[in-house]
Design a protein that fits this description.
The structure holds two protein chains of two kinds. Chain A is α/β, with parallel strands linked by helices. Chain A has two domains: 158 residues, Aspartate/ornithine carbamoyltransferase (Rossmann fold); 158 residues, Rossmann fold. Chain A has twelve helices and nine strands. A five-stranded parallel β-sheet of chain A has the order 7-6-5-8-9. In chain A, α1 crosses α11. Chain A is globular and about 55 Å long. The C terminus of chain A is likely disordered. Chain B starts with 7 loop residues before the first strand and ends with a strand. Chain B is an alpha/beta fold. In chain B, 60% of the residues are buried. The longest helix of chain B is centred in the middle third of the chain and has 18 residues. The chains are: A alpha/beta, B alpha/beta.
């Protein structure tokens, strides 16, 4: 593992499988009466959120707390950031407070990279979503969910996603989730197809390790997982598509389309969902939709990432057991 | 001004435009003679053996930031940087605070230039009031002012309204003016952060597509042809733009274009660092664009090199990419980059460099005292280059008030040893006088 987690593209196959396996071990904790390990006792994790994202922040917060880290939540709203304090000054402040890891969500693509390489701080940097660049822990939790649902054998420990066909549908252009997933899933051996109206496919996509299709119906029949991306209604006003209804008809997942998916195939959504837009209520509430499972898996993945970045070399749970028995 | 007007300087053995060694005698403000074995006769003698003598360089595109942003540059610090870079004249862009859209502001900049004494400062006037693209500024008043403005530009912003652009092109015909267009279709570049392409797709940064530049250039060469005026294209950056300018010139239309040193060397791959020192407008493009620009500068499709020297205070670059200002300083490294990309590659000889960095920009700006031959009787605006020098760029030593260079730590060839402004040395042995 590297010292920071900025981009899913930085992860080798072995790194990625290690994170998934570690998360699998840590997930077992959730079944225990006391869901807490002493592993990161005395370490400080700062959640530095320049964008509203309650879901991601509480997921990181739960992960850090289950590892017994001290958690400081720094939200840009109501803080000095809204008064014009620079990212640099904020970083220097956190450094002075002794942050061991900074989990950053920022509206500017590259802000976590800048934080990690600028020399402003010494701690580990975890990208919790930057602009339209990446959201690597989301991709990891998605891969974790797929492996659990699709892999042969119990939970798929040690395995990758070789040969699995994954379809990602929606606003790829503005999606950090899609970028991270394309990198990670291809590293794990999956075959990724992006489906979107041409207006929402990035110029330059031809260099990505994936296929691109404009036709959802042509793809759903031969896929192991369909990941629906959130589509903001405002995109309509920038002429990315004519109307919500036309978008929903051509690129939304409804019961009919889901019925044409292979029987074992799952429906994923990073949330929050726009019911009636990219996904109908029927699909969202079906057993095949893993949206809620993804949230639970997110905590395990973020525990694994914090554990590995903050110095865990041994098996996570084994290390915890050793400490518990002291 | 320690030297009197009759002071004599003899450059011994300089390679005039890279040719055979010649002695060049400067007397007062003019070149008194060019030959071999000239008599020193009381002159200060400078051993110029092996060094390249060029006409003083002329920049069509400099941001001196004064008035308004004296924290990043002033006319004095900017012209000092220009002298270090071998320039004897710069065109000061109009996007100051207040905007140089009246005779008053251009005269202020012109007067500050006179006082600085390091190089001639020719103010550029705004095309429209406040650079807002809505209403023509008083172009005639700026032309008739002491500053004698001939080049008009809303640089930083595009004159995107086709009617305003047409009227401006027509209007300046009355006094042989030229409109220098910052070609950037605004709707196609909303939220643009870097070149739109493979790298922007990966980095998730808003794309600045080549077509946003090319579509405006195509429109403007057609407009210039239609109204019989002349248009100058600022900082041309794409292979497609080169094709359009080449086509317009083949029609005999009065179109000129400039390229920046950074677009001759750097590509959008550098943006992968997310280091805002590489953030510039127009953005760094691809390797194919860089090669097309070099070729076009070599064959004359692109008339000149212009620095787009754009100083910014440290804090405006010491931040995340999205929050950073666009622009790079360039005066002090321009000639080195041109030597590296054009001369050392065999694309251009030193006569060509003199043409693209002095003769043609002077002609476009209608400067009479610059871009002249190196011959007896001509104004002694001269740059002596030690082309054998190799050095690593260290912004700490810059004369500019700002340090936002994309070349920090990079080895570049060439160093300006002497710059003469009308016979008076502004740079001696690589240092400001």
């Amino acid at each position: 593992m590297k010292r920071h987690l900025i981009s899913a593209a930085d992860l080798s196959r072995d790194d990625a499988v290690l994170i998934l396996d570690t998360a699998e071990e840590l997930a077992r904790l959730a079944d225990r009466p006391i869901k807490k390990l002493p592993t990161l006792r005395g370490r400080t994790v700062v959640n530095l959120f320049f964008e509203d994202s309650t879901r991601t922040r509480i997921s990181f917060e739960a992960a850090a707390k289950r590892l017994s880290a001290d958690v400081i939540n720094f939200s840009a709203k109501g803080s000095s950031v809204s008064k014009g304090e620079s990212l640099k000054d904020t970083a220097l402040t956190l450094e002075a407070m002794g942050a061991d890891a900074v989990v950053i969500r920022h509206h500017a693509s590259g802000a976590p990279h800048r934080l990690a390489t600028s020399g402003w701080i010494n701690g580990a940097v975890v990208n919790a979503g930057d602009g339209t660049h990446e959201h690597p822990t989301q991709a990891l939790l998605d891969a974790f969910t797929m492996r659990r649902r699709l892999a042969s054998g119990a939970s798929g420990a040690g395995q990758d996603l070789a040969g699995r066909r994954i379809t990602i549908v929606g606003d790829v252009l503005h999606s950090r989730v899609a970028r991270s997933n394309v990198h990670l899933l291809s590293t794990l051996g999956a075959e990724v197809t992006l489906v979107a109206p041409p207006t929402l496919v990035p110029f330059g996509v031809e260099s990505w390790p994936c296929e691109v299709s404009y036709d959802l119906d042509a793809v759903v029949g031969k896929t192991d997982a369909v990941m629906m991306l959130r589509v903001q209604r405002e995109r309509m006003n920038a002429a990315f598509f004519p109307t919500e209804r036309e978008y929903a008809r051509r690129y939304g997942l409804d019961g009919d389309r889901m019925a044409r998916m292979p029987e074992h195939a799952i429906v994923m959504h990073p949330g929050p969902m726009n019911r009636g837009m990219e996904i109908t209520a029927e699909v969202a509430d079906s057993d095949r939709c893993t949206a809620v499972e993804q949230v639970a898996n997110g905590v395990s993945i973020r525990m694994a990432v914090l554990y590995l970045l903050l110095g865990g070399n041994e098996s996570a749970v084994a290390a915890a057991r050793t400490e518990e028995s002291k | 001004m320690t030297m009197s007007d009759t002071h004599k300087t003899l450059l011994r053995g300089a390679k005039v435009l890279g040719g055979e060694p010649r002695d060049v005698l400067i007397e007062g403000e003019r070149i008194a003679g060019v030959g071999t074995g000239l008599d020193a006769d009381g002159a200060t003698v400078i051993d110029a053996a092996g060094q390249i003598l060029l006409p003083g360089l002329v920049d069509l595109h400099t941001h001196l930031r004064e008035p308004g942003r004296e924290d990043s540059e002033t006319v004095l610090t900017g012209t000092r940087a220009a002298a270090i870079g071998g320039f004897t004249a710069v065109h000061a862009m109009a996007n100051t605070f207040p905007v140089a859209d009246t005779a008053g502001v251009v005269e202020q900049v012109w007067r500050l230039g006179k006082e600085s004494g390091y190089c001639d400062v020719q103010p550029v006037g705004a095309v429209t009031v406040g650079l807002e693209g809505k209403k023509l500024a008083e172009l005639g008043a700026m032309r008739d002012s002491a500053a004698g403005v001939r080049v008009f530009s809303d640089d930083g912003k595009c004159v995107d309204d086709a009617v305003i652009m047409r009227r401006a092109l027509e209007y300046v015909k009355a006094f042989d003016g030229v409109i220098a267009q910052h070609a950037q279709e605004p709707r196609l570049t909303e939220g643009a952060q870097m070149n739109e392409g493979i790298v922007s797709a990966e980095l998730g940064l808003g794309g600045w597509p080549a077509v946003a530049e090319e579509s405006i250039i195509a429109r403007d060469v057609l407009l210039a042809a239609h109204v019989g005026s002349r248009v100058h294209i600022c900082h041309l950056s794409t292979a497609g733009s080169v094709e359009i300018v080449r086509w317009a010139k083949s029609k005999g239309w009065n179109v000129t274009a400039e390229v920046t040193p950074h677009h001759l060397l750097l590509t959008d791959e550098l943006v992968r660092s997310y280091d805002p020192v590489f953030k510039v407008n127009p953005p760094l493009r691809t390797e194919a664009d860089v090669m097309a620009l070099r070729e076009a500068l070599a064959d004359g499709t692109i008339d000149c090199v212009a620095t787009d020297h754009a100083p910014h205070p440290h804090e405006d670059k010491d931040c995340e990419w999205g929050a950073a200002a666009m622009g790079m300083v360039g005066l002090e490294t321009a000639l080195s980059v041109v030597q590296h990309t054009m001369v050392d590659t065999g694309l251009l000889d030193w006569t060509g460099v003199a043409d693209r960095m002095s003769v043609r920009p002077s002609a476009i700006g209608r400067l009479t005292g610059h871009g002249r031959p190196i011959a007896a009787g001509e104004p002694a605006n001269l740059t002596l280059l030690d082309s054998a020098y190799r050095g690593v760029v260290n912004p700490a030593g810059f004369a500019s008030r700002s340090r936002n260079t994309p070349y920090e730590g990079r080895e570049l060839p060439g160093r300006v040893a002497y710059t003469f402004l009308r016979g008076r040395a502004t740079v001696v042995d690589g240092k400001l006088v």
